[in-house]
TrEMBL record:
This is C1QL. InterPro entries: C1q_dom, Cerebellin_Synaptic_Org, Tumour_necrosis_fac-like_dom. Pfam families: C1q. It comes from the Eukaryota. Residues 168-209 form a coiled coil. Residues 84-164, 330-405 form the C1q domain. GO terms for cellular component: extracellular region. It is found in: Secreted. Keywords: Coiled coil, Secreted, Signal. Its main location: secreted.
Length: 405
């Protein structure tokens, strides 16, 4: 049983080691993907100032994954019209490390690449719209270890959309109309209109340059995203294959261990039942032996009483016939005692046998508490003791007088 527990402990250690190695690989993959994303974003920094112009409505900076799909949604006249109405609002955030989530917990993107309008709060992961309008929100989340993950996009505590993840990267996307978190001030609007007119003039000058630069960036972004997606998919596929192989191997080993443990448990159970059966049999035999001992003890005690009474009667007859000196009877009183053990007694070496019950104690010479007889008068005494050992064990019995056996 001890060797089996040691084997089970070693197997558990191997499983823990394999699990830690798998977690290390996942963290390494996430770190590599994060570095790759940082390199992609770094390549955009030089040209970001120009592209901020259309960030109020075009969701290109909310998620680079969808820049190509959303670029064609708006024309420059439409962008000018929207810029004349309100300030630019855009943000792009990321997770600096993996996050362990519980039910109902907020996914906090604590790193910020872009936060035009200061609507996003990185410490709590909440975006508060500075202006009322139509916002395009996109979130990319991946669950590890093949675990399922339900992702909700909430507006003022109400779920607007939901994505269910099962270990792969998923995109949660929603167009939500957000109301201003506070009343709009007329004075701010006037200042904004003055500023927008200057920006529109500047837009006319750089429109052609922006279109060329945007096309170049989109082409480069497409190449980078294609390379990232291909690399990521290859890593995920390899990891899934390796995880499935390791899982199957460990499942087979655990099944074998559980089968062996079941057999050991059955063997122990049968041995326990056999031990209990033997204990019951021993108790029954001990009870029968105790009954035989009590029967024999009762017969011996009765015989002893008869013999004691007979001896006393003979002494009385001899006294009457003159065989015992009358002068001796005149000098001392009659002394006699008869005692028995009320229960069995477990003895160690040189321990006293105490007969704690008395039938006769003429002269009060016998003390049932200590099991010692002290002669009240000098004379000739006849002492007899009957003792029996149980369970076939040997017993040595000595009669002592003043400490001498």
């Amino acid at each position: 049983m001890y060797s089996f527990l040691n084997s089970l402990s070693l197997k558990s250690q191997e499983l823990s080691k394999a699990e830690r190695e798998r977690e290390r690989k996942i963290e390494s993959m996430q770190r590599d993907l994060h570095e790759e994303q940082k390199r992609v974003n770094t390549s955009y920094d030089v040209k970001m100032i120009v592209l901020y112009i259309d960030s109020s409505c075009c969701p290109i900076y909310l998620s680079s994954h969808h820049a190509i799909k959303t670029k064609s949604y708006f024309t420059f006249p439409e962008i000018k019209e929207m810029l004349e109405k309100r300030d630019t609002v855009a943000f792009s955030a990321y997770r600096s490390s993996s996050q362990t989530l519980s039910n109902g917990e907020i996914v906090i993107f604590d790193g910020v690449w872009t936060n035009v309008g200061n609507g996003y709060e990185r410490s709590i992961g909440v975006f508060k719209a500075p202006n009322r309008g139509l916002y395009h929100l996109t979130a990319v989340v991946m669950s590890t270890d093949g675990n399922s993950l339900g992702l909700n996009l909430c507006h003022n505590g109400l779920r607007m959309t939901r994505s269910y993840l099962t270990g792969d990267e998923k995109v949660l996307e929603k167009l939500v109309r957000l109301e201003h978190k506070m009343e709009l001030f007329e004075e701010k609007m006037k200042t904004m209109e003055s500023s927008m007119s200057k920006k529109l003039k500047r837009m006319d000058e750089i429109e052609k340059e922006t279109e060329t630069l945007t096309d170049t960036m989109l082409d480069k972004q497409l190449q980078i995203e294609t390379r990232i997606n291909d690399s990521y998919q290859e890593i995920i596929n390899n990891f899934k294959t390796q995880s499935n192989n390791e899982t199957t191997l460990y499942e087979e080993k655990m099944d074998s261990l559980f089968d062996s443990l079941s057999l050991k448990s059955q063997t122990l159970s049968e041995a326990e039942k056999e031990r209990e059966r033997k204990i019951v049999s021993m108790q029954r035999d001990s009870h029968e032996e105790h009954k035989r001992f009590n029967t024999s003890s009762d017969a011996i005690v009765k015989n002893f009483k008869v013999q004691s009474n007979k001896t006393l009667q003979e002494l009385i007859l001899q006294q009457q016939k003159g065989k015992i000196s009358t002068r001796c009877w005149r000098k001392r009183e009659t002394v006699a005692f008869s005692a028995y053990g009320s229960s069995s007694q477990t003895l160690s070496s040189r321990e006293k046998v105490i007969f704690d019950g008395t039938w006769t104690n003429v002269g009060n010479g016998y003390e049932p508490i200590t099991g010692i007889f002290e002669a009240p008068h000098p004379g000739l005494y006849h002492l007899t003791a009957v003792v029996m050992s149980t369970d076939g064990k040997s017993l040595g019995l000595d009669l002592y007088h003043n400490g001498l056996g």
